[in-house]
Amino acid sequence: MSKLGQIGAKLHRGEVSYDFIGHRKFWFSLSAVLVIISLAGLFTRGLALGIEFRGGVEYDAAVKVTDSTVDDFTNAVKATNAKGLGDPVVTTINNNKVRVQTKPLAQADVGNVRAAIAKEAGIPAEQVTSQQIGASWGKQIADKAILALIVFLVAVFAVIWLYFREAKASMAAIIALIHDVTITVGVYALVGFDVTPATVIGVLTILGYSLYDTVVVFDKVRENTRGITGSNRYTYSDATNLAVNQTVVRSINTTVTALLPVGAILVVGTVVLGTGPLKDLSLALFVGIAVGAYSSIFIAPSLLAVFKEREPGMKALNKRVSAKKAQTAAAATAAPVAVATAGAGAAARSAVQDTPRKADRATGTAPTPSTRPMKATAAGRPQPTRKPRSKRGK
Length: 394
Prior knowledge:
This protein is an alpha+beta fold. Helices cover 68% and strands 7% of the residues.
């Protein structure tokens, strides 16, 4: 068995553990900081919406990419002075293609920009492909994405409620999902990657992944807390913490296994391809899987424990467990005192018995034989002395 497997076995048996629930204030504070940073980046920098959401014109041209390709095509497009052009977005794809994205343009300006791109690339204008995406179509895509997210969250709440028969579990899972989405979107705002339909697909995918991990932990919590109010061994938080420790190795294994290929796709999509759906999809998956595993271990179970500990039955259970722990601690403290007292008494009796013997050794006299107290008879009279066998009958 590997070392990680041995640790997992010890965690499952409860031989070693980390107090995830006891340190929940620290993890809540860390999540609050991450969410604040994400929201700050979202409101200050905003999302770099792809052309599919904001509308515009996209041009593709075959060209040998050099270090100055982006600057050359940017200057060439700006030189057209097209109305409402703004700052064009120029990206390279591999080493043989350039992509230029602009804001929505008039039909005449679309042709002028195409001609400028073709001139800079040294190819005929007919070889420059272009497609126009209206702003209304982009708005429809955005509205559908938001609607899909809302439907997903409602469905998640209902399914978890039906499965666990516990609304508090649904609330904890939904809060963890919102936490994951907020941080993922904040990373997109801070990094500056374009938000495309592939990004939306990635976000919905990581929500499912995070939910799956959370359900596994909650299922173990339900197993550990079944009939817990009828005993006084563990509180709900103790049982929840045990469940997290029993599943943490599995969560780490599945998360690392999922992050390795997604990380490879992210590197290829960013470094090699430069742009495209792979880059947009892989970043959402990579950040979402990592944050989802974190929330499934540190956030969702702690929220569930906080919600459940407020119930009257759990409060009574906490009092019983606390009383039992105090009683056990008092007994453990009294036991060494009793042993010490008994040892001191035995030592004192031994010293009293050894005192005459030490005096005899000091004076050189024979030791005084110890006398046992005679047992008095019922009448208190001395008993006749028994004669030897040889003198009997005389």
